[in-house]
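Lab channel / #folding
Pinned by the channel admin:
"Please post every new chain as: sequence first, then the structure tokens as a reply. Keep commentary short and put observations after the output so the thread stays searchable."

First post following the new format, from NK:
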Amino acid sequence: MRSAASHLKPMSAQTGIIAAVALAIFCTDVDFFALNLALPATARSLGVTTTDLQWAVTIYQLTLASLLIPAGRLGDLLGRRRVLLTGIAIFGLASLLCGAAQSATMLVCFRFVQGAGAALLFPVGIAVVSNAFASAARGRAIGNVYAIGAIGTAVGPFVGGLLTDTLSWRWVFFFNVPFALAAFLITLRQVPESRDGAAERVDTTGLACVVAGIAAVTVAIDRGSDWGWLSATTLLVAAGGIALLGAFVAVERRVRFPLVDLSLFRNAPYVTITLAGAAGNIGTCLMLFLASIYLQQVRDLSPLVAGVVFLAPAIANAAGGVVAGRLGERGTPPRLVMGAALALGAVALALLAFVTAWPAYVAAFALAGFGLGTTWSYTSVGTQAVVPEAMAGGASGVTLAIVVGLGGLSVAVGATLLEVLTGGGASAATAIHRLFAGLAVLALLSAAAMLATGRAPRDRTT
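Reply from TO:
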């Protein structure tokens, strides 16, 4: 493979690479965080409940998680620029179709396509940046990409509330289109092609097993409360998913060109960083889902006002990306950065479980956004630092599949638990506060585990 680290581009070209990838990620961040605030209005418009329409969020994250692994590998094999352009194009077109959807079923189907586009651009984009910078500048570059992309996180809730209140929820999707077009044109002009020519083809058997396995497990979790947790349908679907994931591991051990290099899971720093990132993303996804319901259905805020409240954690989340980049550039050990960030997030989540006064609530919301955002951003910085360059795309895909996949599953689990608690007599406010308390415990345990791990290498292995 041609290493861009040894053939560094001029500064203007490097800036163009950062701009292209950051703008692509910006689109996906705006979309996700804007839709959270638009869900209740979208559900009313399409004649379904907000909980039922949560499948539009779950299917997106399910598709994203299922395809991240093969997407990263496809970028390594077919060319990262080509796959990145394809992902941006699919995402932009799917955004148009989502905005034009006339039923909840159509929206869910188009969100599936949109998730496939996002899966192509996420890991490949990070691999493009990773291969364009020398190790000394790589952490800052990746951090900058996440910081710029996180502007979408900052403006997403406000944009979602504003567009839903003034125009229609449909404009939440239409808003993505010009930015996707700009990202496509910059990528076309500024991003050079790169690939890993060591392998010759994609493991289609492994691909089928991992996609079907993740899908089955997610469906079992999402539909378990409707089917009955101990019903034959739930148990069969869950068991089938687990069996398929087991078959995926068995296939990867035997094939000549595996979809996932299982040696990644013998890399202790890589594993600990990925698991800590997953804990941070679970906290982020569930916090945003629960807060959107709490602010609109318990505190009775309009989508626009709720969007203003969401600016606090969103801006803090973006700041976390900048901090992660700077700390990554300095070579600060991931166990210290991510452990401390998770601990901070745990404290903030605990506060969200108990405070009700607006100043305290907004402050805790922002603190959680910063802590969990720093954890999420440092995941990519850290994992790219401890894997070989030739595995950059594949490793990024595996990391994001685990982190995003568990985040998506957590939303399905959270929606189910919310239904169970409210169905058992708890008020919506009480149920949400209990779930925030559980999240705080998860984040605290993850922080303790991360801080207890051994010191990780500061640069990628060879």
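NK: The first helix runs from residue 11 to 46.
TO: also worth noting, DSSP finds 17 helices and no strands in the chain.
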